[in-house]
Design goal:
Length: 308
């Protein structure tokens, strides 16, 4: 090979090497993806009158849960014992699985990724859009940078075997109680000055409490505490507060609450919660479950507001 030919050959090799180098540099960093395949995609329904949940195991990551508590809207969360995503802002989309090429993904919105075991939690709107996507054969996907480098991490929900458990979930939701424990464990019935009468709104609240207590056998005490404002004599206020407590307790009894569950007390104006008289004319209802630590036995002490 002559000098000129060898020189031209080496020039071509060098150019090819540079081109290969740029090609490697331009190659995108591959994402780490977690998701079930066709062979191992499962959805499990957990159902009761208190809560309906759809649970999906995400191999290598953890689990995805659609949760619908009584008295609340649908929510969703991702749960993992090992944090793999960097805390911050991630993206939630609904995209087609690999066997449906050409279907454009739909953006649902951004999500907040935390360093807690429940790394991602979304509200009812986003959760509903995710279930709609699953029913349409799509895969909801959360994407966020990895915890310790810049590679994207993708957590996908498989639509395979979703529709059957979802039908059961809808039936479960139709049988949920109107309220959950957190919503009625501390409740308040207000009264106008000098009154002991219940309004329709008060009766609805008390009916919800009765419905819940009848379903939850772990409720072992119902504290009913009557209160008054400070207008008038203390003797009259004590009597008025007792009557208010008894009105509420009698209504609960009339709806089927066992008298053994009830602890009924009147406190007069002894435990105000506000400088406004209207806030202090009230009866509070507090539920206590088995195993819960008994709280201060007085109805309202310092720092305790049972306004509901």
């Amino acid at each position: 090979m002559t000098y000129s030919l060898r020189h031209l050959f080496h020039q071509k090799l060098a150019a090819a090497g540079v081109s290969a180098l740029f090609a490697v540099a331009a190659t995108p960093v591959w994402a780490t993806s977690y998701g079930a395949g066709i062979e191992n995609s499962q959805w499990y329904l957990s159902e009761s009158v208190f809560e309906c949940s759809l649970v999906h195991e995400v191999p290598g990551y953890g689990r995805a849960v659609f949760r619908h508590r009584a008295g609340e809207a649908l929510s969703f969360y991702l749960e993992s014992e090992i944090p793999v995503m960097r805390p911050g802002r991630g993206q939630l989309v609904v995209e087609a699985p690999a066997w449906r090429p050409g279907v454009a993904p739909r953006a649902i919105g951004s999500v907040t990724v935390s360093d807690q075991p429940r790394a991602v939690t979304v509200s009812s709107r986003e959760a509903t859009l995710m279930t709609q996507g699953l029913l349409q054969g799509m895969r909801p996907t959360v994407t966020r940078a990895a915890r310790y480098d810049d590679r994207p991490v993708r957590v996908q929900l498989s639509n395979v075997n979703f529709s059957g458990p979802y039908s059961g979930y809808r039936e479960c939701v139709s049988s949920l109680l109107p309220v959950n424990y957190d919503q009625i464990r501390r409740s308040r019935v207000p009264f106008v000055s000098g009154s002991t009468s219940l309004s329709d709104t008060d009766r609805q609240l008390l009916d919800n409490i009765v419905t819940y207590v009848m379903a939850d056998s772990t409720v072992e005490r119902i504290f009913v505490d009557g209160h008054s404002d400070s207008v008038g004599s203390r003797i009259d206020n004590r009597a008025l507060s007792e009557e208010r407590a008894n009105v509420v307790a009698d209504y609960l009894r009339s709806r089927g609450i066992d008298d053994d569950l009830l602890i009924v007390r009147g406190h007069g104006d002894q435990f105000p919660v506000s400088r406004r008289h209207s806030d202090n004319r009230r009866t509070t209802i507090r539920l206590q479950r088995q195993g819960e630590r008994p709280e201060l036995q007085q109805a309202n002490g310092p720092g305790m507001d049972f306004s509901g």
